[in-house]
Amino acid sequence: MADWNRRKPIDSLVATAAEHRLVPTLSWPHLLALGVGAIVGTGILTLIGVGVDRAGPAVLLSFAIAGAICACAALAYAEMATLMPTAGSAYTYSYAVLGELVAWIVGWCLILEYSLVVSTVAVGWSGYAAPLLTGVGFPVAFTASPALGGIVNLPAIFIIAVVALLLCMGTRESARLNTALVVIKIATLSLFVFFTLPAFDPSNLEPFMPFGFAKTMGPDGVERGVMAAAAIIFFAFYGFDAISTAAEETKNPERDLSIGIVGSMIACTLIYIFVAAAAVGALPFTRFADSPEPLALILREMGQGQVARIVAIAAIIALPTVLLGFLYGQSRIFLVMARDGFLPVGLARISKRGTPVRITLLTAVLVAVLAGLLPIDEIAALANAGTLIAFAAVGACMLVLRRRAPDMRRPFRVPFAWVVGLGAIGGCLYLFASLPTKTLMACLIWNVIGLVLYFGYGRRRSLLGRAR
């Protein structure tokens, strides 16, 4: 077997040294809250505006398509996570099934996904918090990155530090706080639907598909269509993959992982459809298209200014759940890559509280630099590209393992596996092709850098490579 194609034995995945082994403290309600907390966030709060700008009222169809593709990926994740209950998510599955090079590419894409999501959400949170801070004399220069005329975005760095410290304190403790914040978030969206759904006007849905179905370039240089919107709205759905990174910390992974992954996807899809239908039915889409705060704008246009303020305040309180979910996931990806030798093994050491403090703090520093100093709004769509590659890889892992080891015990067995697996792979590739062209080029450059690092460093450093 070629060096780049060597695979990690599945049996070795759970045979981790005690000093590197995470402590199981989570049950399915914690996982469900982790998934909903990571999924429901800036996506639903802001991307409805971007979505209707790209697809018009047919954004409802965009949500349905993105949700269906994510549902296929979520089912594949559920089978693989219960089969390999260890941290690492798509990177680990790819290492065991598709080989080291594919695993490195998937891990590299996951680093892209998690880093950009955490940084983007932190900057978004800072945007809500900055007016409150500057109102009490906080210097404006310390609320924006240099590219936006500031010195450093300290609020974004602050919220990342707070979430990182919560994770270092203990997984169970941070999971409890996350659950409480998720309840606030769901209550806020329910409040929006309660006030807007009675104002539903079917005429606001006409014309339903003004920009067509496939991705087309508009006269203003913006790519529009149902699929163009779906490729961006996809950002609003992922986050359930963070649950799979918690496999090693789950008390009963064979049961709880599938409940958490599939349950969070079902719950979030229903939430999104209700919120999107209420939004496009309450107001003509042109009045809130591309708004950075579409839900609050709709409420203000309806004369519900007080409710709009409640939604904005609740967003500030609950948005850190997204940070917690993705920072948690990225630290676990880094943890497993350190175990495998791609990062210094000492970073994988677990503290007395049962958490990977070293790798969590390192992760927080990296994303804080991005959030504090770099203009990330233009490259945030790159997170979608990295995620789509990882999701397609998990679908492929499930199908390859079904063919290679059909009799292997599977605690959660996906029904109609080939339909689901091909749906995940094909759907993700179609959404990938529907991304903006500049995003695809940036993704190519990112992966070329990753391949250079692998062949120049990673291939020699990996534990499998040194064991040969």
From TrEMBL:
InterPro entries reported for this sequence: AA/rel_permease1 (IPR002293)
Domain of life of the native organism: Bacteria
Keyword hit for Membrane: yes
Location of this chain's protein in the cell: Membrane
GO molecular function, one term: amino acid transmembrane transporter activity
Membrane topology: Multi-pass membrane protein
Transmembrane annotation, as ranges: 31-52, 59-78, 90-111, 123-142, 148-168, 180-200, 226-247, 259-286, 306-329, 359-376, 382-401, 413-433, 439-458
Keyword terms of this UniProt record: Membrane, Transmembrane, Transmembrane helix, Transport
Gene3D superfamilies reported for this sequence: Amino acid/polyamine transporter I (1.20.1740.10)
Pfam families noted in UniProt: AA_permease_2
UniProt keyword Membrane, yes or no: yes
GO cellular component terms listed in the entry, alphabetical order: membrane
Protein name from the UniProt record: Amino acid permease
Classification lineage: Bacteria, Pseudomonadati, Pseudomonadota, Alphaproteobacteria, Sphingomonadales
